[in-house]
Amino acid sequence: MADKRLVAGRSVVVFDAYGTLLDVHSAVARHAGTIGSVAETLSETWRTKQLEYSWVHALMGRYEPFWTLTERALDHALARHPQVDPALRGDLLEAYRDLAAYSEVPATLDALRAAGLRLAILSNGDPAMLARAVASAGLGDRLEAVLSVEAAGTFKTAPSAYALATEHFGVAPDAVLFVSSNRWDIAGATAFGFASAWVNRKGMPEEYPDLAPVAVIESLDGLVRVEQAG
């Protein structure tokens, strides 16, 4: 069942997609045997540059589809790791279209839906990118909406990106629990007025103490709890 301490007074739970529901490193992991010892650093470089590109484009007011930024970020990562065969580019991009969901995601979403909560994704991903990712991970039937920042013409942490969720559901920000593994995303959502839960999978230190989440959990199933008998 849903953890009432987190969802009390909330009617909507909104999830970030990449890194929260979907494992962004699973694309490189599928080809780690071919890539070799630099697989982990290649994946980290790819992800870091992808996010950097989104922030820079948002600040410039020059929106580009997130898939375009994902491609450019991979090109940068491959250039930084010349020992990796560049012919893998197509395979890595194809794998990124079909990222694996974290193992606890389906059951967690089912438990939240059973508690009567409305569930959605709010992601930097563009609509086509998200549609394929959600379908390949088998999450589509568990979500009421999949919202892309493309409609706002910018990226998170712009307030207009978070406003897409309140506008879609017709609720005030305090009716939403926003869930992300990205601490910068939690900061942006909290500043907007959402209650936020940070999925801190890697035990990372606090970065934005003035924009604190209502909860820090180690994995997504921290949103639900099992009632103890007796």
Description:
- Helix 4 packs across helix 5 (66-80).
- This protein has helices spanning 4-7, 26-29, 32-35, 39-60, 66-80, 89-97, 105-114, 127-136, 159-169, 183-192, and strands at 12-15, 118-123, 145-148, 176-180, 195-199, 215-217.
- Strand 2 (118-123), helix 8 and strand 3 form a beta-alpha-beta unit.
- The longest helix has 22 residues, at 39-60.
- A six-stranded parallel β-sheet has the order 3-2-1-4-5-6, sandwiched between helices.
- The model is unreliable at 226-230 (pLDDT under 50).
- It is α/β, with parallel strands linked by helices.
* Helical stretch tally: 10
Low-pLDDT runs:
226-230
Under the CATH scheme, the architecture of the largest domain is 3-Layer(aba) Sandwich
Strands, total number: 6
Biggest β-sheet description: 6 strands, parallel
Number of domains: 2
* Strands in their spatial order, largest beta sheet: 3-2-1-4-5-6
Average pLDDT works out at 95
Please name the fourth-level CATH homologous superfamily of the largest domain.
HAD superfamily/HAD-like
Q: What fraction strand?
A: 5-15%
Order of helices and strands: HEHHHHHHEHEHEHEE
CATH topology of the largest domain: Rossmann fold
Gap between N and C termini: 17 Å
Summarize the structure.
The protein has 230 residues and is α/β, with parallel strands linked by helices. The protein has helices at residues 4-7, 26-29, 32-35, 39-60, 66-80, 89-97, 105-114, 127-136, 159-169, 183-192, and strands spanning 12-15, 118-123, 145-148, 176-180, 195-199, 215-217.
